[in-house]
Design a protein that fits this description.
Blueprint (H helix, E strand, L loop, with lengths): L13 E8 L15 E7 L4 H7 L9 E4 L2 E2 L15 E5 L6
Parallel strand pairs: 1-5
Antiparallel strand pairs: 1-2, 3-4, 3-5
Length: 97
């Protein structure tokens, strides 16, 4: 490397997470999804809302968001950081009587 030249930038590390969408949200998964889930490759540092947004799921429909079995409140969905191997599951609001 020549003096004064910058080192090549490294690609952002990638990781795999399981993304699950239930009930009416399952239609937002790409073709080939099985059992309401896909394995998604995301950049290190990705948040739950970034995964939700990247699949076109309207945030207003992402009512119940669970990361590795733990509820993620709306105020934390832009702050929680996913890790390799995590499972992110999302359910829509439910109406009933």
């Amino acid at each position: 490397m020549l003096a004064g030249s910058a080192a090549p930038t490294e690609a952002m590390p990638r990781m795999k997470v399981t993304f699950k969408l239930y009930a009416t949200l399952s239609g937002y998964l790409p073709g080939g999804a099985r059992d309401h889930q896909i394995e998604a490759e995301v950049a290190a540092g990705t948040t739950p809302n970034e995964v939700i947004d990247s699949h076109g799921v309207p945030r207003r429909l992402a009512h119940l968001v669970v990361l590795n079995g733990v509820y993620v409140p709306p105020s934390e969905r832009d702050r929680a950081i996913l890790r390799d191997g995590d499972t992110l599951a999302v359910w829509p609001p439910v109406a009933g009587g």
